[in-house]
Amino acid sequence: MKAPTSVHRMVRPQVQTLSFSVLPDRAPQLIDITEKVEQLIAQAGVSSGFAVVFCRHTTAAIRINENEPLLLSDMEAFLERVAPREHNYRHNDFSIRTHNMTEDECPNGHAHCQHLLLGASEIVPLQEGRLSLGRWQRLFLVELDRPGREREVLVQVFGCA
Ligand code: ZN
Question: How many CB atoms lie under 10 A from the CB of residue 38?
């Protein structure tokens, strides 16, 4: 039997799940998490593969966009126009709502509607142990609801060392 060449050698891909939390100080707020995600990718020691960056919440999103301060304020204003906080949402009517009510329930119908347009995750290819983002691409956690709560971000790394 022929010995496998380096090109054909089977390399078993690994899966690692890492996480960190973010504490937003206002809403809406786009928080650049690129450096934190890159630190975790470096820890994972995966040189080639991909990473799923996933937020475990229905009112905080993960998006890729540009980190330019004026643009960040444009995007925050855009979210507020799309689903204004002061609009009427049935989700906020605690006199009729019976589902998923908690002790500290807040009126956040706007944040769920904004989240619907954004999404909970992004997938980024990894090359030479780094996120292969374009020149202006950065990863953001987008807080849509309210400040002062820790938001959990999972980074699941798939690939080979
Ligand atoms: Zn809610």
Answer: 17
Structural domains of the chain, ranges and CATH numbers in brackets: 14-94+107-160 (2.60.120.460)
Is residue 109 a contact partner of residue 92, using CB atoms and an 8 Å limit? yes
Find the 106 Cα to ligand 1 centroid distance in Å.
7
C-alpha to C-alpha distance for 55 and 119, rounded to whole angstroms: 9
pLDDT digits (tens, 9 = 90+) for 13-67: 899 999 999 999 999 999 999 999 999 999 998 999 999 999 999 999 999 999 9
Q: What is the pTM of this model?
A: 0.90
Q: What spacing in Å lies between the alpha carbon of 99 and ligand 1's midpoint? A: 10
42: tokens are: 């470096």
How many angstroms is it from 22 CA to the middle of ligand 1? 19
158 Cα–ligand 1 center, Å: 32
